[in-house]
Amino acid sequence: MHVTRISVHQVELPYAGGAYTWSGGRAASITRSFIVRVDTDGGPCGYGEVCPLGSSYMAAHPGGVEPGIAALAPCLLGADPRETQRLFQRMDAALKGHAYAKSALDMACWDVLGRAAQLPLYVLLGGRQAEDVPLYRVLPLDATERTVEAMRTLREQGYKHFQVKVGVEPREDIERIGAAVAAAGPDGLVLADANTGWRVDAALQVARATRDLHYYLEQPCFTYDECLAVRRRATQPFKLDESIETLADLLRAQRDGACDAVSLKLSRHGGLTPARQLRDVCVATGLRMTIEDAWGGSICTAAALHLALSTPPGCVLNTTDLHNYCTVQVAADGPVVAAGRMTIADAPGLGVTPDPAVLGAPVAVYE
């Protein structure tokens, strides 16, 4: 089996909440999702997706996706897409960095592998270890009263995990965290995510003022060393997100005792192939994980879900239903959400069939 054609489609995904806001004055209302289709000679096709959350969240931006894929396509054309590790090494040799561009291609090759084997990806990623995975929902920066109201609505829908955006001004953030923990209830979980927005002194001010509340403190500061300084003086469970880009970053955090949990985002690491490596290290060292992607539709959501379903449940903190954050759906099938948890059918590969009418004509084709 060989790759004969790579097509790139572009779909705009409006945010269902109007404006998605987080620390540093950053916001997004419409994102651009790039969906890759990999065709083979006589075998199945596969789909992958990458959707940068603007250009100021990760080292990724929408304008870099197509040039990145253009540089990587020659590595895949004529190659066997089922050899995922080998192909990822070829992509790394052809293009330094730009993990987000590699992610969509890597994901599509995994989809081909699963479809060719007639197996869901969670089987190929280690075997299904859970029927479903708990979901968290993001509460963007907003007035505390509106955040609490939104949390109550989400509670009624079955969600129990809430990532509450903070990182503005300590007094305001202290109030916001307290209200969120109360709204989450005794069986709820709050992750106060500053998205690198605090200085060390501000993070410590918030941590000390909320020391009696049960919640996770997530990525308070910009650098790893700043986060480690907060970690060593704060009492809250601690989660790193932006600081964990590579396997080396994860090993350093584990060695330093820098966190209790991490966020694995497929496009930050380069797709399922490297994310699986990080997942396995987390399992071996006892770090809990949020397994997800930065943004996207059903394809990104399904890929992260397959990795989460093949992970020991005790190591999975949660994931999120990214496709439900958007008003445009790229597929009618895929992840199924009920009562704050997510699962997927036993279909081969990713289990997602994009709607051609939504994809439209490709913006680039390589063959």
> Based on DSSP secondary structure assignment, what is the total number of beta strands?
17
Number of helices: 13
Overall geometry: globular
Biggest sheet, in brief? 8 strands, parallel
Radius of gyration, in angstroms, nearest whole number: 20 Å
The CATH class of the largest domain is: Alpha Beta
CATH topology (level 3) name of the largest domain: TIM Barrel
Structural class: alpha/beta
Provide structural commentary.
The protein is an alpha/beta fold and 367 residues long. It has two domains: 3-119 and 354-366, Enolase-like, domain 1; 123-343, TIM Barrel, CATH 3.20.20. Helix content is 38%, strand content 21%. The protein is built from 13 helices and 17 strands. The protein has helices spanning 62-76, 84-94, 99-117, 121-124, 144-156, 170-184, 200-209, 224-231, 247-256, 266-269, 272-285, 298-309, 356-359, and strands at 3-14, 20-22, 26-28, 30-40, 46-50, 133-134, 136-139, 161-165, 189-193, 216-218, 238-240, 261-265, 288-292, 316-318, 336-338, 341-343, 364-366. It has an eight-stranded parallel sheet with strand order 7-8-9-10-11-12-13-14. A four-stranded antiparallel sheet has the order 5-4-1-17. Strands 6-16-15 form a three-stranded antiparallel sheet. The two termini are 15 Å apart.
Itemize the secondary structure elements and their pairings.
Elements: E1 3-14, E2 20-22, E3 26-28, E4 30-40, E5 46-50, H1 62-76, H2 84-94, H3 99-117, H4 121-124, E6 133-134, E7 136-139, H5 144-156, E8 161-165, H6 170-184, E9 189-193, H7 200-209, E10 216-218, H8 224-231, E11 238-240, H9 247-256, E12 261-265, H10 266-269, H11 272-285, E13 288-292, H12 298-309, E14 316-318, E15 336-338, E16 341-343, H13 356-359, E17 364-366
Parallel strand pairs: 7-8, 8-9, 9-10, 10-11, 11-12, 12-13, 13-14
Antiparallel strand pairs: 1-4, 1-17, 2-3, 4-5, 6-16, 15-16
